[in-house]
Amino acid sequence: MSLLDRLERVGDVEWVLPPHDGMLVAGRIYADGDTVDQLRREAADPAGWSAIRQLKHVASLPGIVAPAVALPDVHPGYGFPIGGVGAFDLDEGVVVVGGVGFDINCGVRLLRTPLRQRDVSSAIDRIAMDLYKAVPAGLGSKGALRLSMREIDRVLREGAQYVVHLGSGLASDLEYTEERGQVDGADPDAVSALAKQRQFQQVGTLGSGNHYLEVQTVDEIIEPKAATAFAVSAGQVVVSIHTGSRALGHQIGQDYLKEMAPAPAKYGIRIPDQEMVCAPVRSPDGQRYLAAVACGANCAFANRQAIAHLVRMSLARSCEIAPETIQTVYDIGHNHVRIEEHVVDGVPRRLLVHRKGATRAFGPGRADTPVAYREVGHPILVGGTMGTASYIMHGTAAGMELCFGSGIHGAGRALSRNQAIKRFRSDQILSDLAAAGIRLLTHNKRGIAEEAPGAYKDVDRVVRAAAVAGINVPVARLRPLAVIKG
Q: Is 409 annotated in the active site?
């Protein structure tokens, strides 16, 4: 029986790949039929990347606990599928470089403002241009925070907390940042000198590719109770910042793919694919990689914190509002690996949870959720496309059981970047966005075609699948007014 023949539909948006051929647990996909049809087409090409095969590989790794999970925005990645979740026993399990990827702790920060859409409609071009000039973006861009190599080590240890210490931000930003902007266990000695050299002028820069800064309006309130808790309302102007650990995170990924390449043979681990380089969680190799990932995560938190400060100052100028009236709703990453406590078969366990293109989506009552959000669960920030919409969602008690409290992170790509460049024209996209009332300012015209709205899945459909599955609840839909891209 082929891999595709084994995939069983067990619900409206739930599919199971039973254990076979070395799998230790099942694979579970939460997605609608159209998404799974696309996954099947990809899997039919034995030479191409396949998210279904990658999910099978995750389910074959030592120490994995419960099913390997793919969320509704799933698509192929390096090693792990993007939109993939895998949780591992701390004693028997492994840490996987491909389970984090190259943009460590890429994520989204959402800022709410006291502005309404009517306040900015006539001035959106001026507002967008001020942001374009204020926030460095593009490949190799340099930030206003010019740090020494010694200060970079503090960024890697202290994350967003160090940036606030330098005066770029508010203390309240940390309260509404995952891990308060500082992941424990970071060791700058686990990060190469080259990675640090590539980063020391990039803190406070947006980068390129799918990273963006968007001025948005709250287009629709879907779940009023949670929206009230998150202090967002219909017609309000908000700003989304989507970026990660920049060159440092990418270099950490490159370094550890090489450094950990001998680890499977060293520890007697059979890996199903060379992209699944891993080491036992408790081993010196595994611990060193986790220390480096924590550094990358802290760098990303620091980066979004520094950009948020630039956004505050820009909006204060262009909209004549006090900077402190621009507040952080939440900051959450979607490429990371963390030790967390979860209940498995009725027993609380500490597990190493990999989320690749997936966020935490903790439901109500978790102590690590900000007090103001604890009754509903913390926000999930879902990026769509520059021509459609983004969403605020929150986690559920069911999601804690079904997917280790994990959530979707975006629409998910439907086409590769090369496919998108062949299919879409940048000039036409610019024209279409302008016709829809969306201003786009970019530092790289080629990137417009790569990030065409048509290169992504329908974000409304992806959100609907997560809601039908019961793992994430939509709170508000956000529509772009102005987009800044690298």
A: yes
